[in-house]
Amino acid sequence: MKQTPVLVTEAATIATSVLTVPSKGEGFIDITAEVARFLKQTGSTTGMVTLFIRHTSASLTIQENADPDVLADLITSLRRLAPTDGGWRHTVEGPDDMPAHIKTMLTCSSLQIPVLDGALALGTWQAIYLIEHRTRPHSREVVMQFMGS
């Protein structure tokens, strides 16, 4: 194993912005470029970006960005885990709403990504995605916050 030297810095910057993401319905939306743009605007080099989605029927994830079949298979898996015809009691907002809540519970409402040398410390094949779990289009909000120096 190899570890780089520990760099201790004082958090001098806290920057916050809200990203509004339009969805076209169920699916993955790559927001990596928007998060990187936000980070660049802070002018900071070391710290942490926290992302938080302000919804209970959409979520966030870090996933492979090379093979689109991965995202298609993930949607298929989520549909199997929480089908629209699952006999749910909560149907006031439509048959896709309760499954969307379950899918959100199984995924993430927030993420933290380290920032190294002014860049998101994502792996080669990683991207940040908003997952829309509802079938119709929505406007989603992601709070982005950087803390560091």
UniProtKB/TrEMBL annotation:
It comes from the Bacteria. InterPro entries: UPF0047_YjbQ-like, YjbQ-like_sf. Pfam families: YjbQ. Belongs to the UPF0047 family. This is YjbQ family protein. It comes from Afipia massiliensis.
